[in-house]
Write a sequence for this structure.
């Protein structure tokens, strides 16, 4: 079978084992995945330089964070999947305790308690982004796939406990994303189609319950999505300005650092949640499609690694990490283009901010570990 | 691995997993497709809509006020200009503690404590980045004091702005008028597009009547602003390239007045410490040479803005400095109308050159006992019309008054412009009053009051009773005597000039209806008599006119003050002072080739020839170039 260049890149089959590739393998890194991630980061840094208003200090800050995240990836890649699996319940339980601590003592940041000060300030919810899919995969590892109904209920509990704690902080966006990463594990494990249909049907009263659970500002965001022009200077402002930025970028954009919406601060949170709009304005449709292509390459490579994985745990975890990454990309881009409510999800690897990037890169380190620790036995 | 765990079917597990990866991938591709479709919709199909909205987002139109026209006197000396003044401002968003900052500024005497509530209200109402004026004009010492303390006041700074300035101050206060802050009431009357960005408008004098010429037109400029409306500095050129063209403001026209600053200063000095007015006019064009009302005020107070207490002091001053006596003050004209009545009497045949009267110092109407007294108790003896004017004999005019009749008196005085607005280009002039039987019928409700009495005609003949005239009217009427009946509408603005092209437009004199006499020698009779007033052997003002190197004509007047306003409070000394007669004098010169006509009134000045006439003489001397000879 002849492979196209892209297929060759994704599968890594035809790649000759050069010195460079050998070095990568010794470090338990995956070349194509690393290449894709670095391209995204480089692209992200270029856009961020414009989005922080050409502030070198802030930009360099982000470069350092990126370095830290790459180190986290390198470290994560060194742990074998079996090691990770053994420690999974402890990571999960520890995460739960820290989440409970946040609710009791956590520092208040932007009207929500998310931070915990343990020498360095960090958000325990970041641990859960990895610990929840790991725990779900751990539970399913030595059980028959597809899971039975009772097993599904137990996994549901594993997912719901941290989700509720994080939603109470309140950080609905992160809570939903963490829940999604757990749900993806069950779906990949073969959740019967009838369950999914049933869930779809149940989501109507569920959405109603959620609506009552939501804070006023969260309801506002949903209402604003439905009709942003009803309140152009208030809640709808972000979406309107974001759409103007992206739309006015056109095919080729207004040019790097020349986006009037972004540079004149019409665009809110231009360096964090709405950085995709800066890219749309300055680099145009061509620029954003390039970035989306890079993202899809990374997701595809992650799914390939998942398919190639040797254990149930590794397979489910790799699949969940890859697809959750896709969910991040989708939610952020859909939010910025006004397709879903503004939920405060950063654009992965591009938005300004450190903690989430470290977690993401650690996740990719796990992916690389899964790929590089395979026992290369004949199948 | 637990031993009891069921044996796993790895092949089926891999199949299930692969199937689910494909399922989720398809779902993912659909979601991605939605996002891409959305991007294409926004960036391709709706591109033009959003491109326009993004442009509208960042461009703001800002008005640029025009520079107000300058005002010059007839010799090109500046009467009104625009000078930079340093205004103390505060930018609310840059000040952490506004209360403390204001308090410290009060302690430095840079703002008044009473201003604090107003400033606080302003700083809380507008956009946070918009400066709030704390003090419209810092003096030099205040600027120095603030400059030292400046680092201690973040968000407070001074900024230059153009403020109207009147270098001649009160010399020209009533002639030029002043500008003041544009009020909402003003804005209702004005074209808002022309006044965008303007903060001041003409309130009185020619600043008001020539407002449309002086103001010019506002321009506008497009500026790039950020989301908070703050202007983006010019360095971001690349963002400013696409701006539409700006429109420059059109500066206001410069005005050249017929007013002579020297005469203004002279008249102001002569009236110093008194209440009164001087109006001088070029009889052959109607150009106002001087227009002074005393006491005056400093018009700069209005242009810069003054405190409430300063304004209140001006407003409640018993001498009424804000009142323009020259065009708005109406006074009984007294004997100054005798030359005009003489014309009327000669023309109507009520008298002739031969008619003589023996003046015993009083006059009685037939079959009555009321004595109408002459100002000279012992009488003037036998007088004719010439003597009656020269010596200002009241009895002569009493005698002929009913031969002329009040209605013919009214008609002739009206020919000279009394009783009607002169049409001068200064707003607010009063028409005065020349009574007639018809006027009295309409003016009173009560039937008994509507009848005209012969006695009223008698006192009307010496300019008393109902009759009222403004100093301006007396000047224009005197000018009509000087030109022997040729009349011009008085005006202050002689020309205006486009400051961009330098093109000048001259104000053409407006000639009014001539006064045509059936016998033109009647002019000579009256003018000779007026000359005698000043330079004849028995003239009432011969002391003033003697020794002059040119021939002049004049007439004094003394108007009785009948009552003091009931709502005004005076102390006793004050009452005595305010009950004194008003002193009036009208004059023109030279007699053979009249170049200037003057009217002077000094309130409670007692004697027309003694107090008012010297002022008129000084004005004429200065204008005709004989002022060295006068002293």
């Amino acid at each position: 079978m002849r492979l196209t260049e892209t297929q060759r890149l994704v599968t890594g089959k035809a790649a000759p084992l050069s010195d460079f590739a050998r070095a990568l393998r010794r470090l338990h890194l995956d070349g194509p995945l690393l290449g894709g991630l670095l391209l995204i980061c480089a692209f992200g840094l270029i856009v961020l330089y414009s989005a922080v208003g050409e502030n070198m200090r802030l930009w360099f800050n982000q470069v350092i964070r990126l370095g830290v995240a790459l180190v986290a990836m390198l470290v994560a890649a060194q742990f074998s999947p079996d090691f990770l699996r053994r420690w999974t319940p402890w990571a999960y339980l520890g995460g739960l305790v820290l989440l409970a601590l946040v609710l009791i003592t956590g520092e208040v940041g932007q009207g929500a308690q998310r931070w915990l000060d343990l020498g360095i300030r960090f958000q325990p919810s970041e641990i859960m982004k990895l610990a929840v899919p790991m725990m779900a995969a751990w539970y399913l590892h030595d059980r028959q796939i597809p899971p039975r109904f009772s097993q599904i209920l137990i996994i549901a509990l594993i997912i719901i406990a941290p989700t509720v704690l994080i939603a109470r902080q309140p950080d609905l966006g992160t809570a939903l994303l963490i829940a999604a990463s757990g749900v993806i594990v069950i779906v990949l494990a073969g959740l019967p189609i009838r369950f999914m249909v049933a869930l779809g049907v149940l989501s109507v009263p569920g959405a109603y319950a959620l609506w009552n659970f939501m804070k006023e500002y969260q309801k506002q965001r949903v209402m604003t999505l439905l009709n942003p022009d009803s309140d152009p200077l208030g809640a709808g402002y972000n979406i309107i300005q974001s759409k103007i930025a992206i739309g006015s970028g056109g095919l080729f954009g207004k040019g790097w650092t020349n986006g009037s919406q972004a540079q004149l601060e019409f665009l809110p949170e231009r360096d964090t949640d709405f950085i995709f709009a800066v890219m749309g304005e300055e680099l145009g449709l061509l620029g954003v499609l390039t970035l989306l292509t890079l993202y899809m390459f990374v997701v595809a490579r992650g799914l390939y690694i998942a398919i190639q994985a040797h254990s149930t745990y590794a397979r489910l975890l790799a699949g969940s990490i890859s697809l959750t990454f896709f969910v991040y990309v989708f939610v952020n881009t859909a939010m910025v283009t006004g397709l879903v409510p503004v939920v405060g999800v950063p654009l992965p690897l591009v938005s300004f901010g450190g903690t989430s990037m470290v977690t993401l890169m650690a996740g990719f380190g796990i992916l690389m570990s899964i790929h590089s620790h395979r026992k290369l036995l004949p199948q | 691995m637990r031993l009891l765990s069921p044996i796993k079917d790895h092949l089926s597990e891999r199949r299930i997993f692969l199937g689910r990866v494909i399922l989720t991938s398809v779902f993912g591709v659909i979601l991605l497709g939605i996002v891409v479709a959305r991007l294409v919709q926004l960036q391709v199909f709706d591109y033009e809509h959003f491109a326009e909205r993004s442009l509208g987002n960042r461009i703001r139109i800002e008005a640029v006020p025009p520079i107000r026209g300058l005002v010059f006197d007839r010799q090109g000396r500046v009467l009104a200009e625009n000078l930079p003044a340093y205004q103390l401002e505060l930018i609310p968003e840059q000040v952490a503690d506004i209360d403390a900052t204001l308090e410290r500024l009060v302690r430095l005497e840079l703002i008044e404590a009473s201003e604090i509530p107003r400033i606080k209200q302003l700083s809380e109402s507008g956009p946070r980045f918009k400066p709030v004026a704390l003090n419209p004009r810092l003096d030099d010492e205040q600027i120095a004091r603030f400059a030292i303390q400046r680092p201690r006041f973040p968000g407070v700074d001074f900024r230059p702005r153009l403020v109207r300035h009147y270098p001649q101050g009160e010399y020209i206060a009533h002639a030029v008028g002043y500008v003041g802050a544009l009020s909402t009431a003003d804005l209702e009357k004005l074209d808002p597009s022309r006044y965008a960005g303007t903060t001041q408008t003409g309130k009185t004098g020619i600043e008001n009547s020539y407002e449309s010429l002086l103001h010019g037109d506002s321009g506008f400029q497009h500026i790039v602003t950020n989301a908070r409306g703050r202007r983006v500095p010019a360095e971001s050129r690349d963002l400013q390239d696409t701006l539409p063209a700006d429109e420059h403001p059109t500066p206001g026209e410069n005005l050249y007045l017929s007013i002579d600053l020297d005469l203004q200063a002279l008249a102001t000095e002569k009236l110093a410490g008194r209440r009164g007015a001087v109006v001088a006019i070029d009889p052959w064009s109607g150009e106002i040479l001087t227009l002074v009302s005393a006491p005056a005020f400093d018009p700069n107070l209005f242009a810069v803005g003054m405190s409430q207490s300063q304004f209140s002091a001006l407003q409640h001053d018993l001498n009424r400095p804000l009142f323009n006596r020259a065009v708005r003050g109406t006074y009984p004209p007294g004997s100054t109308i005798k030359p005009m009545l003489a014309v009327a009497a000669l023309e109507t045949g009520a008298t002739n050159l031969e008619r003589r009267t023996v003046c015993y110092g009083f006059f009685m109407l037939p079959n009555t006992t009321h004595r109408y007294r002459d100002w000279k108790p012992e009488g003037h003896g036998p007088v004719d019309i010439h003597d009656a004017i020269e010596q200002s004999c009241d009895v002569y005019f009493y005698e002929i008054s009913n031969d002329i009749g009040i209605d013919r008196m009214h008609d002739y005085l009206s020919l000279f412009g009394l009783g009607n607005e002169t049409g001068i280009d200064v707003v607010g002039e009063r028409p005065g009053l020349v009574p007639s039987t018809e006027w009295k019928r309409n003016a009173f409700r009560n039937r008994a009051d509507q009848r005209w009495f012969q006695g009223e005609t008698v006192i009307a003949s010496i300019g008393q009773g109902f009759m009222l005239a403004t100093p301006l009217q007396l000047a224009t009427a005197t000018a009509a005597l000087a030109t022997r009946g040729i009349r011009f509408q008085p005006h202050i603005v002689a020309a205006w000039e486009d400051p961009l092209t330098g093109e000048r437009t001259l104000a053409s004199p407006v000639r009014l209806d001539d006064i045509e006499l059936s016998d033109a020698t009647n002019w000579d009779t009256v003018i000779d008599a007026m000359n005698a007033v000043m330079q004849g052997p028995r003239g009432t003002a011969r002391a003033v006119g003697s020794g002059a190197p040119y021939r002049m004509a004049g007439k004094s007047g003394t108007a009785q003050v009948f009552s003091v306003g009931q709502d005004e409070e005076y102390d006793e000394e004050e009452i005595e002072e305010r009950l004194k007669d008003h002193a009036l004098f009208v004059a023109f010169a030279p007699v053979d080739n009249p170049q200037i006509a003057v009217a002077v009134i000094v309130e409670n000045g007692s004697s027309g020839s003694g107090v008012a006439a010297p002022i008129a003489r000084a004005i004429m001397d200065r204008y005709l170039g004989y002022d060295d000879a006068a002293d």
Remarks:
- Chain A touches chain B through 51 residues (CB under 8 Å).
- The two ends of chain A are 19 Å apart (CA to CA).
- Residues 5-372 of chain A form one domain.
- Chain A is about 70% helix and 5% strand.
